[in-house]
C-alpha cells in the first residue's frame, strides 16, 4: 500500500509546505510512491483569503516587492534553498505597488502549480474540494480523515493541518449584542472577514458604529465608500450618497501606523543582538517558566532600541551627541529602563529621534479633547504627521525598528503562545495600511463620511440603540442602529466553528493559555494534554501556538513560517521514508 499524506488546507501555508516537501524529497524520500491529498473547499494556492472572487478594491498591505513565497539563505533551516520570484517580479509590476488580493491570489496559484510540478514523479497529488470534518485513528496506525459529503474517509499515514484563518462562534459579549440587535431591530455584524460580510444592511446616510481600527476596518472603509460608487479627486472624496457614516474607535483609537514609504539603504542593523537564540534558550530552560511582561518584554524593548539607535548613530551621526562606539558600549550593559532612558537623553538631543514604544503603541494615552470636533481635527493632524514621518527617509531608524520587529518575531515564535499583547503591538507598528489608504481616510474624515470616536471605546446597548463613548472626549457619546465589529475572529480551538478543530478539542488536544492548539516547537506535531507529540498529526498556522506573522514574508528577513514549513516537511518525509522502507523489507 502506497504511503499517504493528507494536508488539510490548501492555501498559502499548505502551498508552502508542499514547496518544502518538493525541495527536501530528493534527500529524504526514496520510497516507491506517495499519495498527497489536499483537502480544501477553496482553490489550491489562493485559498479563502486570496481567492479570485472578491472585490478588486481590497489590497494587500505590503509592497509587491516585499511579498515572496520562496526561501533564501537568511532562512534558518536544514533543507535546501529554492529561490523564486517575488510578487512584483512574477507580475512584472512596480515593486512599490500595493497589489490587489486578486493578483496575489494568482501569484499563489502559480506558486502552488510550481510546487506540485517540482514533486518527484512518484508523488500523486489529489485535490478534494470539501471540508474536513474530523480525524480519527490510533496513535501508531493509519489516520482516517472524514470529509463532508463523502461516506468513506481518506486513509493517511500522516495528517498536516494548515487551516489558515477560520470562523469562530461568538463570545459572551457578542452573543448579548446580537440578541439585543434582534430584539430591537438593529444591525450587528460580529467579527468576520470583511470580504465575506453582508454589508447591505448598512443603510446610506445612517450612522454605523465601527469597533476596530486595523486592517479589517480598512477593508470595510473601501467597500462602503468606493465600493458604493464614491471616488477620490486628489485629496478630496466625492460621495455617491450611498455611503453610511462610519463612527470608528478602538482600544488605541487610532489606525495602525502607515507602511513605510521608502527603501532601505546601507548597512542593516546586526540582529539579533539582545534577543536571539541564547536568550530564548534561557527563557525556555527556566523551571518555573517565564512572564512575558517581566522577562520577555524588556528584551524586546532593548532589541528594538538597538536597531533604532544603530541606524541613527551610523547614518545620522549629526543628530547624536556621542560616538556610536561609546553609546553601544553603555547601551549593552544598562539593564534598568530608567537608566537606558537617561543614556538616550544624554546622547540623542532631539526627542523626535528617540524611540518611545509606549507612545507608538498608545498615542492617545492620557489625551483629552474638549469637544468632538476638536478631536476630529486632532486625529487628522496625528495621521498626517504619521504619514509624513513614515515616508521621510530622514527618519530611517523607523525602518530599522521594522526590521527589528521581524527579527524579534522570528525568535518569539519559539516561546509559543505569549498572549495577545505582542501580536497587537506588532500589527500596529509593522502591519499597518498602505499610505494611500490613510490619505483616503483623511479625505473621508474631511468629507464627514468618517468620524473618530476615540481610544478605549466603550459600546453599550441601551435605549433601543448602540451607544459608544471614549475617555478621549469626556462626556461625549455617539449612537447608531448598526454596529460592526471590524476585526478577525479569534483563532482559538475551543470557539472555532471548524468541525475538525472542534473534534480535536473534544478529543483532548493541548491548548495554550489563549486557547491555541499546542504544537511541538521542533516540527509542529500536535500535542495532547499530557504534552506528548502525536506521531502522525502536525499543525501549522494561526490556530497554533507557533503562529507567525504570515504564510509569506518579506525577502531576506528569515521567514519564520518558511523555517517551520521546512522542519515539518522534513519530519514528515523522514517518517514516510521509514514507513516505505519497512513496507519494502
TrEMBL record:
<dbReference type="InterPro" id="IPR036188">
    <property type="entry name" value="FAD/NAD-bd_sf"/>
</dbReference>
<feature type="region of interest" description="Disordered">
    <location>
        <begin position="528"/>
        <end position="560"/>
    </location>
</feature>
<feature type="domain" description="FAD-dependent urate hydroxylase HpyO/Asp monooxygenase CreE-like FAD/NAD(P)-binding">
    <location>
        <begin position="6"/>
        <end position="165"/>
    </location>
</feature>
<dbReference type="InterPro" id="IPR038732">
    <property type="entry name" value="HpyO/CreE_NAD-binding"/>
</dbReference>
<dbReference type="Pfam" id="PF13454">
    <property type="entry name" value="NAD_binding_9"/>
</dbReference>
<dbReference type="InterPro" id="IPR052189">
    <property type="entry name" value="L-asp_N-monooxygenase_NS-form"/>
</dbReference>
<protein>
    <submittedName>
        <fullName>FAD/NAD(P)-binding protein</fullName>
    </submittedName>
</protein>
Amino acid at each position: 500500500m502506497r504511503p499517504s499524506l493528507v494536508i488539510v488546507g490548501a492555501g498559502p501555508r499548505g502551498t508552502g509546505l508542499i514547496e518544502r516537501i518538493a525541495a527536501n524529497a530528493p534527500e529524504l524520500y526514496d520510497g516507491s510512491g506517495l499519495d498527497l491529498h489536499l483537502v480544501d473547499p477553496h482553490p489550491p494556492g489562493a485559498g479563502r483569503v486570496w481567492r479570485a472572487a472578491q472585490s478588486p478594491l481590497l489590497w494587500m498591505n505590503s509592497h509587491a516587492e516585499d511579498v515572496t513565497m520562496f526561501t533564501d539563505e537568511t532562512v534558518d533551516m536544514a533543507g535546501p534553498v529554492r529561490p523564486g520570484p517575488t510578487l512584483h517580479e512574477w507580475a512584472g509590476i512596480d515593486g512599490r505597488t500595493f497589489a490587489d488580493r486578486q493578483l496575489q491570489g494568482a501569484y499563489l496559484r502559480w506558486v502552488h502549480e510550481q510546487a506540485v510540478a517540482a514533486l518527484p514523479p512518484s508523488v500523486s497529488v489529489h485535490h478534494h474540494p470539501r471540508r474536513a470534518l474530523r480525524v480519527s485513528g490510533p496513535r501508531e496506525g493509519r489516520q482516517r480523515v472524514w470529509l463532508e459529503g463523502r461516506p468513506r474517509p481518506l486513509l493517511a499515514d500522516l495528517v498536516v493541518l494548515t487551516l489558515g484563518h477560520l470562523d469562530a462562534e461568538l463570545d459572551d459579549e457578542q452573543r448579548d449584542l446580537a440578541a439585543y440587535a434582534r430584539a430591537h431591530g438593529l444591525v450587528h455584524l460580529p467579527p468576520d472577514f470583511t470580504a465575506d460580510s453582508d454589508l447591505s444592511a448598512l443603510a446610506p446616510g445612517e450612522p454605523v458604529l465601527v469597533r476596530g481600527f486595523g486592517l479589517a476596518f480598512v477593508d470595510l472603509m473601501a467597500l462602503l465608500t468606493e465600493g458604493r460608487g464614491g471616488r477620490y479627486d486628489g485629496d478630496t472624496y466625492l460621495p455617491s450618497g450611498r455611503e453610511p457614516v462610519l463612527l470608528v474607535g478602538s482600544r488605541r483609537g487610532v489606525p495602525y501606523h502607515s507602511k513605510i514609504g521608502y527603501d532601505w539603504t546601507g548597512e542593516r542593523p546586526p540582529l539579533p543582538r539582545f534577543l536571539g537564540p541564547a536568550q530564548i534558550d534561557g527563557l525556555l530552560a527556566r523551571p518555573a517558566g517565564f512572564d512575558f511582561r517581566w522577562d520577555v518584554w524588556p528584551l524586546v524593548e532593548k532589541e528594538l532600541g538597538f536597531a533604532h539607535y544603530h541606524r541613527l548613530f551610523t547614518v545620522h551621526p549629526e543628530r547624536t551627541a556621542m560616538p556610536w562606539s561609546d553609546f553601544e558600549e553603555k547601551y549593552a550593559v544598562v539593564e534598568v529602563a530608567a537608566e537606558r532612558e537617561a543614556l538616550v537623553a544624554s546622547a540623542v538631543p532631539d526627542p523626535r529621534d528617540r524611540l518611545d514604544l509606549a507612545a507608538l503603541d498608545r498615542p492617545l494615552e492620557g489625551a483629552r479633547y474638549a469637544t468632538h470636533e476638536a478631536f476630529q481635527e486632532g486625529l487628522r493632524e496625528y495621521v498626517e504627521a504619521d504619514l509624513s514621518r513614515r515616508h521621510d527617509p530622514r527618519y530611517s531608524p523607523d525602518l530599522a525598528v521594522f526590521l527589528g520587529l521581524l527579527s524579534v518575531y522570528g525568535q518569539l515564535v519559539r516561546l509559543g503562545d505569549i498572549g495577545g499583547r505582542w501580536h497587537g503591538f506588532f500589527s500596529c507598528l509593522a502591519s499597518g495600511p498602505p499610505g494611500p489608504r490613510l490619505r483616503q481616510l483623511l479625505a473621508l474624515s474631511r468629507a464627514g463620511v468618517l468620524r473618530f470616536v476615540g481610544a478605549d471605546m466603550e459600546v453599550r446597548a441601551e435605549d433601543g440603540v448602540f451607544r459608544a463613548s471614549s475617555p478621549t472626549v469626556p462626556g461625549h457619546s455617539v449612537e447608531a442602529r448598526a454596529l460592526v465589529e471590524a476585526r478577525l475572529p479569534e483563532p482559538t480551538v475551543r470557539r472555532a466553528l471548524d468541525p475538525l478543530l472542534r473534534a480535536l478539542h473534544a478529543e483532548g488536544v493541548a491548548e495554550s493559555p489563549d486557547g491555541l492548539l499546542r504544537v511541538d516547537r521542533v516540527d509542529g506535531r500536535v500535542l495532547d494534554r499530557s504534552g506528548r507529540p502525536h506521531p502522525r498529526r502536525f499543525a501549522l498556522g494561526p490556530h497554533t501556538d507557533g503562529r507567525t506573522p504570515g504564510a509569506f514574508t518579506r525577502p531576506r528577513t528569515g521567514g519564520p513560517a518558511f523555517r517551520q514549513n521546512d522542519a515539518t516537511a522534513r519530519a514528515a518525509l523522514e517518517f514516510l521514508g521509514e514507513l516505505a522502507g519497512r513496507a519494502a523489507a
